[in-house]
Amino acid sequence: MPLPKMPTKPATMLLAKDYPQAEPGKSPVRPASAKTDADLEDLISGQAVPTPKATKARKAKAANEPAPVQAVAPAEARDADAPLARGPSRKPKQGPIAPAPAARLLEPDADQPHPAKHKPVEVNVKSSTSRKADRSGTTKVFVLDTNVLMHDPTSLFRFEEHDVYLPMMTLEELDNHKKGMSEVARNARQVSRTLDALIANIDDDAIEAGIPLAKLGNKDAKGRLFFQTKLDAAPLPEGLPSGKADNQILGVVRALEEQMGGRAIVLVSKDINMRIKARALGLPAEDYFNDHVLEDTDLLYSGIVQLPDDFWTKHGKDMESWQENKNGNSATYYRMTGPLIPTLLVNQFVFMEPKNGESPFYGQVKQITGKTAVFQTLRDYSHNKNNVWGITARNREQNFALNLLMNPECDFVSLLGQAGTGKTLLALAAGLAQVLETKQYNEIIVTRVTVPVGEDIGFLPGTEEEKMSPWMGAFDDNLEVLMKGDGDAGDWGRAATQDLIRSRIKIKSLNFMRGRTFVNKFLIIDEAQNLTPKQMKTLVTRAGPGTKILCLGNIAQIDTPYLTEGSSGLTYVVDRFKGWSHGGHVTLARGERSRLADHASEVL
């Protein structure tokens, strides 16, 4: 279901219209900014919703001109069970291309405290050669650059019915990068083992004719694998050094166009400069985007949905309600049936804030069976009597987050938000309360990716914990806030409290996580947006009995090279864990750090 946009201003509370408006009988839910189906198509294709004047102009133009036919994306591209969103072989949407950023600016909304700012949407544009082949229904030949194989070792099997061609220079570069313990070296060795298994028991003549990619059991790969068997590449324009690997691969693409005149030859590379050079030479080139979880991160699951004003009218006819006492807290449950229920997910938060002065409703979906759902009311952590280690929720989203963090039945929680929204503070407060007060967990384990923002400062002395301490400045800052404690305790009491807290918090490095099992631990993964999906899987699978894992991050601040908002491990787990009965996600919307930080996020 389409979900609300990431907050454009971390210092501004999300308005009610920025959340998805649930409409009975319609799935997915249309965002409030999309008034018509045409506007919804514009949002999905990456275009801004036009203003009312532009809408009238478009309707007037549509009355005089026939509407263009828009192709529907293939069903397999929308398959929820597929591990990846789509690859270069997907049929493109024949929708309008997003205009330049200047044309995307909307008129300021009177309801918004500040003019809306819209980030440019990444649109994966296919080459004209690839689009022609899609329209004619013919298969293509994808020439893979080395960085594609080292980025995704299984990319050989991601092109469906199309053929894959490997130049000899690609094999040479794989051989050059196979040594070492880095992720790139491991991927290069995995690709080499896969290629060895494919060419096993194959005659030389069969290699010339192509090797079926489905030989190893990958049924989705219906094409064939071709190797470069002749070292005669087409000449490139003068001035390009022939000894460079990229230029030799470009020569292979040009030679293939001459040899296979009737087929579409497309170069696939993660190297932007390589694609630019290819397009400048008139060669079709595309990015490899099969690793993207979502085409547009604005559609990322937020964990929150606003109920329509007529929700109780249409769903409260045969409503049942009762109270239960779980984990020492009393909660009210509602069972109701209606057309809106199938659009919701388990553990999703719902809210309704009437404008006529009635009390608001905040709830969480606990169970869905067909068109019947069970809602549970939330504990109000904004009240001081329900504070968590002295911390209370300052806004609606923080209250939702604390309900997940303090729920022992929720084993996996992901918090996403801009700087200053309180992700780390809420996680630490919940961890200390459940480790030291309720003794739900034994200790807190904190880890993060050690990716520097600027230049690396070199090797660090000391033990593992001492080496990791410079990376944990954010946790130290939050611990200072949490360890203020009671002012009447005196210096000795505060020192004893600090020693107790420090003894229950362990800082670990990601490099030594493989093979470990954490039992009854409160594991916090900070800066999770810098993790790849493979690294995220390695971390989450470390959880043993009674362990709770928290993933914190901001996908707008990715420091890892070759990782984007759509392919980040944080995006991956948010999308994969939605709807699980023991997992939850909340996108925090409002900055609560300080008025200076809020204003800086706004104007800088």
Automatic annotation (TrEMBL):
One Gene Ontology CC term in the entry: cytosol
Compositionally skewed regions (Low complexity) per UniProt: 63-75
Residues annotated as signal peptide: none
All residue ranges annotated as the PIN domain in the record: 140-276
GO molecular function: ATP binding
SMART domains in alphabetical order: PINc
Key words of the record: ATP-binding, Nucleotide-binding
Keyword Manganese: no
Taxonomy, superkingdom: Bacteria
Region named Disordered: 1-135
UniProt record similarity statement: Belongs to the PhoH family.
Name of the protein in its database record: PhoH-like ATPase
Classification lineage: Bacteria, Pseudomonadati, Pseudomonadota, Betaproteobacteria, Burkholderiales
